[in-house]
């Protein structure tokens, strides 16, 4: 089975486990357990954070390949809000209001991603660089575009 009933999740940890079973199992067996062995059983939170960093980096790398530019919004949102919500909205929260909070944050996160990546795409199309340096390829162009976006 590829997924379980992630839409009924009342916690982000449950959502991450049920959204994509194949990826979750792979990350658990080949990343989390290795990080847990490396850091020791006392540091489960650090092992979990390491898995989040790897997953966020792979997601951002995939998006950078597809779009043709690096704009680490997904990486930042995944690490900041994804990790915070994973610890705050944990599995002990069973009230349906937490499912509503989860859905609202998913909608809000998708909207922020679409707006910011669209803004960066617009800036890259209409604010070309003359003699770009390596830093110009890494730094978001929407931050320094003279056009009013």
From TrEMBL:
Record field: catalytic activity: octadecanoyl-CoA + cholesterol = cholesteryl octadecanoate + CoA; cholesterol + hexadecanoyl-CoA = cholesteryl hexadecanoate + CoA; (11Z)-octadecenoyl-CoA + cholesterol = cholesteryl (11Z)-octadecenoate + CoA; (9Z)-hexadecenoyl-CoA + cholesterol = cholesteryl (9Z)-hexadecenoate + CoA
Protein name, UniProt field: Sterol O-acyltransferase 1
Cell location: Endoplasmic reticulum membrane
Keywords carried by this UniProt record: Acyltransferase, Disulfide bond, Endoplasmic reticulum, Membrane, Phosphoprotein, Transferase, Transmembrane, Transmembrane helix
Membrane topology annotation: Multi-pass membrane protein
GO molecular function, one term: cholesterol binding
InterPro entries: MBOAT_fam (IPR004299), Oat_ACAT_DAG_ARE (IPR014371)
Membrane spanning stretches: 43-63, 69-88, 100-119
GO CC annotation terms, alphabetical: endoplasmic reticulum membrane
Domain of life: Eukaryota
Gene name tied to this protein: LOC106553768
Taxon lineage: Eukaryota, Metazoa, Chordata, Craniata, Vertebrata
Natural source organism: Thamnophis sirtalis
The family this protein is said to belong to: Belongs to the membrane-bound acyltransferase family. Sterol o-acyltransferase subfamily.
Keyword NADP: no
Pfam families given in the database record: MBOAT
UniProt keyword annotation of Disulfide bond present: yes
């Amino acid at each position: 089975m590829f997924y379980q009933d992630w839409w009924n999740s009342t916690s982000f940890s449950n959502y991450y486990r049920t959204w994509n079973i194949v990826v979750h199992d792979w990350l658990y067996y080949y990343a989390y357990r290795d990080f847990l062995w490396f850091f020791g059983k006392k540091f489960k939170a650090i092992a979990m954070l390491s898995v989040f960093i790897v997953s966020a980096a792979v997601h951002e790398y995939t998006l950078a390949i597809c779009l043709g530019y690096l704009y680490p919004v997904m990486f930042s949102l995944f690490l900041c809000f994804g990790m915070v919500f994973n610890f705050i909205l944990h599995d002990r929260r069973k009230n349906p209001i937490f499912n509503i909070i989860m859905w609202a944050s998913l909608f809000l996160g998708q909207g922020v991603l679409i707006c910011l990546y669209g803004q960066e795409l617009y800036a890259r199309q209409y604010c070309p660089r003359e003699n770009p340096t390596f830093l110009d390829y890494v730094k978001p162009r929407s931050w320094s575009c003279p056009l009013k976006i």
